[in-house]
């Protein structure tokens, strides 16, 4: 069965709309249906940015053929997960291994939501979605 079929058969969206399940549970179940898992850092569950101020700009196709969207390429990978979870093992060790045996430059390390948001808005190379841990740790 396709992910679309699983989603439809599960009535997951209807349960979310009628508040039978929480936003967190809905997003986690969507991640599961999409094949995302805690067991693969390159397919780690993702959560959307939850913003107080929705005045940011997003991609706007000059031809008008595509609707606006935030990321035009892969938005989750092992380095992104390690970036956010660097202060927790085993992610600290993974990060050090990725950086050839030492920590990355301090200015490039995660230290606040605000700076992470500004970085993804200012740089087309920053494509990090949030991860579930931001909502339960």
Automatic annotation (TrEMBL):
Location of the BEACH domain:
1-137
Which InterPro entries does the record cross-reference, listed alphabetically? Answer: BEACH_dom, BEACH_dom_sf, BEACH_Domain
A GO cellular-component term linked to this record: membrane
**Gene Ontology terms, MF aspect:** protein kinase binding
A Pfam match is: Beach
Task: Tell me the Gene Ontology biological-process terms attached to this UniProt entry.
Answer: intracellular protein localization
Name by which UniProt lists this protein? BEACH domain-containing protein
Q: Organism source for this protein?
A: Rotaria magnacalcarata
């Amino acid at each position: 069965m396709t992910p679309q079929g699983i989603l439809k058969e599960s009535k997951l969206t209807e349960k979310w709309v009628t508040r039978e399940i929480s936003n967190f549970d809905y997003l986690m179940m969507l991640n599961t249906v999409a094949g995302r898992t805690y067991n693969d850092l390159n397919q780690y569950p993702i959560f959307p940015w939850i913003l107080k101020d929705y005045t940011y700009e997003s991609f706007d196709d000059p031809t008008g053929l595509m609707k606006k969207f935030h990321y035009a390429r892969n938005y989750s990978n092992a380095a992104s997960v390690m970036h956010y979870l660097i202060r927790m093992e085993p992610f600290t060790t993974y990060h050090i291994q990725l950086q050839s045996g030492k920590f990355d430059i301090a200015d490039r390390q995660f230290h606040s939501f605000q700076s992470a948001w500004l970085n993804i808005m200012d740089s087309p190379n920053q494509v990090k979605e949030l991860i579930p841990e931001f909502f339960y740790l």
